[in-house]
């Protein structure tokens, strides 16, 4: 199968469609002709506006209210979509919640009832909707199921144990489903965003959170939507959890006091001029906060020997190497 450029034969059910990621994904799919079932819980006016925007692109769309913290809500949503638009061949399980609990520092802050309610909405209803949609996908020989996880599913995240564990559970679900339905024309994948604008789930101020991201900014909903669209268009991406996170999941390793960097090509001529060179190195190495020791090392010297060397201000640097010790 080649990469799909026309999604007009398909219907996508997007849960949590009135949030930033859901809305952007609906529009991205609709621009390729895909019909859209817009799910919402309480944001009825936003859902109506989104439906009109989608229809203006010349495709079918309708909105459907359901509380996905209830399994009956998930069943009702599926039945309503089939009745009005037909069977979805694309399912984006995007809805999620934190129950207003964020920045949790102690496990006692989240009751078992809150834990279970989070799992039911974030994982249980996604499981149930997938269970309901997959048979029609298998019958048609085509299906795309994408789960919206979170980098918290890999790392624990900043929200709390209820949220992180509910997202991590989706990873196992992706892997099992991928093994079970690979031969049926279905692809099963997940996207794992981190700290995305317009999601109403940011655990802090934007400036504070941006500082935690290696690329220095929050993600945009459209960047997640384009990832989902890419997964839908290609039939060869399968059984993957794709982090879209600005580098949070696998940042450059921090430089510790035990780490040394060696320079033999740009070492300064004298110890007096060395600090400028060390500072320049520090500015260009990811993770360096401050230079705390500057030690010229003689050839074949041990670290203990190097630490004991006198540092005369104008002493020429005779050694063949200089080791920089950083925080």
UniProtKB/TrEMBL annotation:
<protein>
    <recommendedName>
        <fullName>3-oxoacyl-[acyl-carrier-protein] reductase</fullName>
        <ecNumber>1.1.1.100</ecNumber>
    </recommendedName>
</protein>
<comment type="similarity">
    <text>Belongs to the short-chain dehydrogenases/reductases (SDR) family.</text>
</comment>
<keyword id="KW-0560">Oxidoreductase</keyword>
<dbReference type="InterPro" id="IPR020904">
    <property type="entry name" value="Sc_DH/Rdtase_CS"/>
</dbReference>
<keyword id="KW-0521">NADP</keyword>
<dbReference type="InterPro" id="IPR002347">
    <property type="entry name" value="SDR_fam"/>
</dbReference>
<dbReference type="InterPro" id="IPR036291">
    <property type="entry name" value="NAD(P)-bd_dom_sf"/>
</dbReference>
<dbReference type="Pfam" id="PF00106">
    <property type="entry name" value="adh_short"/>
</dbReference>
<dbReference type="InterPro" id="IPR050259">
    <property type="entry name" value="SDR"/>
</dbReference>
<dbReference type="GO" id="GO:0004316">
    <property type="term" value="F:3-oxoacyl-[acyl-carrier-protein] reductase (NADPH) activity"/>
</dbReference>
<dbReference type="GO" id="GO:0032787">
    <property type="term" value="P:monocarboxylic acid metabolic process"/>
</dbReference>
